[in-house]
Structure formats: structure tokens, C-alpha cells
Specification:
There is one protein chain. The chain contains 13 helices and nine strands. The protein is an alpha/beta fold and 305 residues long. Strands 1, 2, 3, 4, 5, 6, 7, 8 and 9 form a nine-stranded mixed beta sheet that branches. The protein is globular and about 50 Å long. It starts with 5 loop residues before the first strand and ends in an 8-residue tail after the last helix.
Length: 305
């Protein structure tokens, strides 16, 4: 894969010093990046000096009303002539200079359509979220295929555009990202690939630093949007178990808290887990809810306009 063209694609909104650090790290990768395509929302928040500092940058500006999780990335993919497209978010910091190189190794397997990186907690990450990161992003790499559906359920489709690479030929064969989606464009694409006989690789040695300390209410809003995305794409998610992985995470986290003597965090776990499940359940059934309630529940409110 040494001569393969790789484009990195990053949607941004009000990018600051952290994003400047990401650009520096991407330009120092052991596997040279062809271009860094930035889809920036609202030109007034963009630092033009970065374009002179980083010649690999190609910036496209859009208005806030034009942004869509799937549509914006779909537009960016059309701008790319890379054989591999690496999608990242503006807060995912490359863990080392071998991020791209290690992601690329996954494509040595011809049946792999996409590969996603391991997300490590940031220094300010709280105790519960640190454990969640280790649950979702373990130390060992693996490749998931349709044969894993009975065992893994919905987790077979798990893929995160926080840092994920796609083989463009397979991406295009799948029809690209959905034009309009509230959330979850990565899992929808991964689901299509799995259903079409391709593999999704988890590359534990490709690392980014990325975590959030979400409140219970924010978890509710986020999981509402997750539920909406699944309800709107039954061709991917219908008949695939979703709740099993969530229950498994809660049980394992409870055991971990008890083992570590962090008993005071158990009510926090219960509150956050309840908020996640309530949000997801409401999202899955959003068509039964009044429009005003749907708008309040959603994190991505512009989607409903």
C-alpha cells in the first residue's frame, strides 16, 4: 500500500488551537498524506494563515444550514481522488506519527472495505468514560464480517468517523454516504459493506486521542439521534440486536466499579445508562412523538428544519 493515495477529510466548525495541532501531526505522518480536505462550516471562523502553513490543505466553506453528517462527508468524498479516504473529526488528535500507516495495513486484506482507529481517553476524561473507551476500543485488532452478526449483533456494524478509513472503490460501490442523515453515517455505510460481503477492520495500533465527558442529558440527546438514524434505516438495522451491547457494557462497568471500590459512581452509572436507553428508545419511536418534543429531544436540531 506504500504508493496508495490517501486523502484525509475533516468537517470543522470554529476550529482552534487543538485543530492546528492535529494538522501538524497529520503532516508529520510516516505514511505521507496526499491532501487534507477540510469542509469548514462558516468561513468567518476559519484561520486563513493555516493554508499557507500547511500546503496539503484544501478548504471548502459551507453555511451552517448546509451541514449534514452524511451529505457534507459525501460531498467531500466526491472531491477526493484518494484510493483510501480517512475521515476524522476536528477533535481527534493523532496518537503518534504512525496513525495513517497503521490504518493502511488493514487494507492488505482485499475484503476489507473500511477500518477504524482506537480512541484513547484524553487526560481530562472521567473515570466512567475511560472504562467505556476500553470497552468499545480494546487492545486487540480484529476484522468483522457478516458471520459475526449472531455473536456481535449491532456491534458488527460499529465504525466511527472520528477516525475511519474507507477503500474508495468499495465506498462508491455502496453508493456513498447517505445524502441526509441526523447521525450515524459511518455505521450505515459499515452496515452496507457487511451486508455486501466486505469486512470492517478495527485497528488497535492506529490510535487517536478522543473522548467526551457528556452529562446524562447530553447522552439522552445523543442517543435520541442514534435511535432516529436506526429508525430511518430499517434496511440496515431492522432485525439486528441493539440493546444487548448496552446491557453488557452496564454490567461490566458495574463489576469494574465494585472491583475498584468506586461505589459512589454507581448512581452516576445508573443515571447515565438510563438516559442513554431512554433517548435511544424515544429516537426509535420518534414518529409517534409531537414535533416539539422531537425537536427538544434531538441534539442535531437543524436536521428537523
Amino acid at each position: 500500500m506504500e504508493k496508495t493515495r490517501v486523502d484525509v477529510i475533516i468537517p470543522t466548525y470554529r476550529p482552534g488551537k487543538e485543530f492546528h495541532n492535529i494538522l501538524k501531526r497529520l503532516t508529520k505522518q510516516s505514511f505521507r498524506v496526499n491532501r487534507i480536505i477540510v469542509m469548514n462550516t462558516e468561513e468567518k471562523y476559519w484561520n486563513r494563515s493555516w493554508e499557507a502553513e500547511f500546503p496539503l490543505l484544501e478548504v471548502h466553506h459551507l453555511k451552517k444550514a448546509e451541514f449534514d453528517h452524511g451529505g457534507t462527508r459525501r460531498t467531500a468524498a466526491k472531491l477526493s481522488d484518494g484510493e483510501i479516504m480517512v475521515f476524522m473529526t476536528q477533535d481527534a488528535i493523532p496518537g503518534d506519527p504512525k496513525l495513517i500507516e497503521n490504518l493502511m495495513r488493514a487494507f492488505d486484506r482485499e475484503d476489507v472495505g473500511a477500518a477504524y482507529a482506537r480512541q484513547l481517553p484524553a487526560p481530562d476524561c472521567n473515570f466512567l468514560e475511560r472504562y467505556t473507551r476500553s470497552f468499545n476500543y480494546p487492545e486487540e485488532s480484529f476484522v468483522k464480517t457478516a458471520a459475526d452478526l449472531p455473536r456481535l449483533g449491532i456491534k458488527t456494524f460499529f465504525c466511527s468517523d472520528t477516525c475511519a478509513a474507507y477503500r474508495k472503490s468499495v465506498y462508491e460501490k455502496m453508493g456513498g454516504f447517505v445524502e441526509k442523515t441526523i447521525f450515524n453515517e459511518d455505521m450505515i455505510m459499515a452496515g452496507r459493506m457487511i451486508q455486501s460481503g466486505y469486512g470492517i477492520a478495527y485497528t488497535a495500533d492506529a490510535r487517536v486521542i478522543h473522548s467526551h465527558n457528556y452529562s446524562a442529558l447530553t447522552q439522552f440527546h445523543r442517543n435520541f439521534d442514534l435511535g432516529v438514524s436506526q429508525a430511518e434505516h430499517p434496511e440496515i438495522f431492522q432485525g439486528v440486536s441493539s440493546e444487548g451491547e448496552g446491557i453488557k457494557l452496564v454490567k461490566q462497568t458495574l463489576v469494574y466499579l465494585c472491583r475498584k471500590g468506586r461505589f459512589w459512581l454507581i448512581p452516576v452509572l445508573v443515571l447515565q445508562s438510563g438516559a442513554k436507553y431512554a433517548g435511544f428508545l424515544c429516537g426509535k419511536n420518534y414518529r409517534k412523538l409531537p414535533e416539539t418534543i422531537v425537536h427538544w429531544c434531538s441534539m442535531n436540531k437543524s436536521y428537523w428544519k
